[in-house]
Amino acid sequence: MSVEAPFYPIIYVRGFAMTQGEIEATTATPYMGFNLGSTKLRQLWDGRVQRHYFESPLIRLMKEYGYTDAYLDGGMQREKLPPRSIVIHRYYDQADPHFGDGKRPAILDAAIDLRDLIRQIKQAICGDNAAARRNFRVNLVAHSMGGLICRALLQNKDLRDSTEAKQVNKVFTYATPHNGIEMAGFNVPRFLGLWDINNFNRREMKKYLSLDDHRHVGTLDGHFDPDRFFCLVGTNHKDYGVAAGLSSRLAGDMSDGLVNIENAVVAGSPRAFVHRCHGGPFGIVNSEEGYQNLARFLFGDVRITGILQLDSLPLPPSIQKALNEKKDVKASYWFEASVSPRPAGGGGGVFYLTERRKTNYSAIMRKYDEMMKPAQAGLDKPRWPVLFSTCLDTARITRGSTVVFTIELIVSATDYVIDGVLFFDRTIPGENLYRQTICVRATISDEGWRVRCNYIDDEWGEKLGTELSLVDGSCVVPVASSKGLKGSLRLALEPHN
């Protein structure tokens, strides 16, 4: 059988199981969590509260994209596997004495097994068809430690040049500790071999990822295109109940309850932030937001990146006066950005593809000098905030040929420091330098993109808005406030898949 892009077979690689009981609980299930959904409540227009059922990533991929699982008659199908298949990498089976020798597999062992599994899937789909085997590709979807297993396949010096590693098309990770795990501000110790927790120590990660430096291991090191590697980051630590809440308390606010936000990405990769915890009933895998990002990254055809560039970043009059008097003024700014596509009927209603907010401890922070005086900050150029990088799918359009999405953008300041003294009284709670919801309409035609926008906090969203000029695949949305903030939101539209 031939495999047609972008609907390649999918391998799901589950995350870390700490205790022997957790291992045996997960090996006792066929899909290892990829079939788990969730039920949430939402309020309707008439005040009634209604359940919203998210059936699970597995079921949604089956319903919406025609995928099927690889199980047949109580076993895994070994021949004539359909191209649109979902296969579970059951690397923990050997750690269960019912299925294996009871020994936990090392990360590298699980990566070797993943290589062999890809080989088996290729044979089951392509058989001896030389052209089909040559064009074969596979997508990897992983939760937590599963993402490190995928990276070991792609980066370890003994695996990265294998045919199977080269046939990985894309990787999507949920809440993977790409730069290790920290508890109470410290990387988990190297000597902590109990339950293999040292898998998340950077010195150990350096070994199985074949990296030269252990100080930052969140890099693909040139062995896989970061544009084809998506990181979904959780920002809700409160709902993670593992170890009676101890994990959540030690990981801290800026985490999903286990993995710090800044450690859940690889350098240069697209990423999204969703208000979900690491696992459990409110976990990142079994969420509408997670699935929508997964589907758009694997099958979407448009990638949009938003970067905010500022011409003027105002200070309150009293702070500006101090600056004019040559006093040393320090200030930092929060940038909050949330992106939501227009619902396409059915698909779970309104949701955020990415949501970066101060209340979730996931807003982007930049210092004044980093943006407005880069030389003083030791930079060659301004460090503008990348607000989002998300994928959209024109196949989901139900009317016409226009993709519609909104960007909620808020800019605010932290406290101000003048000559080393922190001035609390110069900041008014809730004060913003800029706040607006921008509606973007992007229409594709034979001549290319036509993009319009309007500011729907000030006018009705159903208006078509102002047409934006498109230069080298990017358009500029003017951003300005009455307080003096001026700049532009640059939207880069690129083909995806």
Automatic annotation (TrEMBL):
InterPro entries: AB_hydrolase_fold, PGAP1-ab_dom-like. Coiled coil: none annotated. It comes from the Bacteria. GO terms for molecular function: hydrolase activity, acting on ester bonds. It comes from Chromatocurvus halotolerans. It holds the Pfam family PGAP1. This is PGAP1-like protein. Residues 114-181 form the GPI inositol-deacylase PGAP1-like alpha/beta domain. Signal peptide: none annotated.
